[in-house]
Amino acid sequence: MQVEVVVVGGGPAGSAAAVTLARGGRSVLVIDKAHFPRDKCCGDGLTTMALRLGEHLGLDPEPLADWQPVDSAVVHSPSGRTIRFPLPSGDGSYAAVVPRMSYDAALLDLARSAGAEVREGCSFTSIGLLSEGAELMVEGLGEVRASNVVAADGMWSPVRRALGLPDREGRGEWLAFRQYVSGAGPQAADLHVWFEADLLPGYAWSFPLPDGRANVGLGVLRGRSGPGGLTGRLAAGLLDRPALRAVLGEGATAEDRMSAWPIPAHLDRAVLAHGPVLFAGDAAAATDALTGEGIGQALLTGILAGEAVLAGGPPAGIGRRYDKSVRHHLLADHRMSVVLQHILFRPLGARAALRMAAVSSWSRRNFARWMFEDYQRALVATPRRWRRGALGRPGAYLRRLEG
Ligand SMILES: Cc1cc2nc3c(=O)[nH]c(=O)nc-3n(C[C@H](O)[C@H](O)[C@H](O)COP(=O)(O)OP(=O)(O)OC[C@H]3O[C@@H](n4cnc5c(N)ncnc54)[C@H](O)[C@@H]3O)c2cc1C
Question: How far is residue 248's CA from residue 245's CA, in Å, rounded to a whole number?
């Protein structure tokens, strides 16, 4: 089989790349080892960046099962103080929650309707670089030749491994746990985040879903002090923590087994391009180092990978163009997130930061917008981005809400 571009992985990064490439007139094959709809261990939270990029790709949230708009975040500080951070209202969507089961399948459908060929249940196994392009072995398809490859194959990136590329941070900077819950009480209709002292450097969340359900989880930066297995034990006791129970209610029960997955957040050291291969999403370790959120970054890097290929030229030029554009869009924010990690994930730092963020209704509103990636993490430190309106852009799907 011969195509212009093979996209390995049909998650948000792969679908975004495939939509961009197919709309640009390239023949695109997307392969994924899973059959969709498939689950992905995740908090299911969409930031403003993810919503805007989803809208740009043409994703309609209306028909998506269990789409839950979010209008504020309730943050619980290490001292036990609770602060509500409101998002702007009547000005588009700034945050939402949607199970990855329906979200990823809808994105992959967009790639299909844009003209990409999607083959599910087809696992990438090996790759050989050619003078022009690459040759991949794919279970269920056999040999596939392509001029360009987008490796959007997630945290463990089998393509990166098959190419023998080093990844010293291979275990991921974060370890995160997810538990779906049913029968939650009315307080769980809000989005909650807990910075409890024994969870630092990390946080717990309860993200609302329709019909009394919630996505509850814990994300912890690796390298925390304490005996091995402590993070696992904290996760196992998550639903029994008094602060979480008070929000979830006594009737809330776990729907299934808790799942766990690492999150890579070292964009500054990741290999973004190798020969005709561009790495996107978790395969490029592009998640936000402060929160572990990576859906928006996966969509962005997927789109940038598609655009770099569409601009044409030899593989080395495409690789350089892609590397440069990813760094231009995300590197300053990544560095800012790493700095803030050190401040916010200490009890005193978290307390002080939340106290400052809660000083006025203006600071509360803007902190919420910053947390949900409406403003870039490093906006304040990157003057090239200071434009009129940088602090007052509408959210996503404004036209749909107006219509
Ligand atoms: C517990 C947890 C909570 C999180 N919460 C949030 C959150 O609330 N908000 C947020 O924005 N981010 C969150 N993240 C991060 C987010 O899940 C990832 O950043 C995002 O899924 C990255 O998308 P991706 O397309 O790069 O990779 P993935 O979504 O992982 O997709 C990779 C695809 O590659 C396929 N694949 C893998 N190997 C092969 C192979 N050999 N052949 C073919 N296909 C293959 C897989 O089947 C998969 O479909 C969370 C992560 C975790 C672990």
Answer: 5
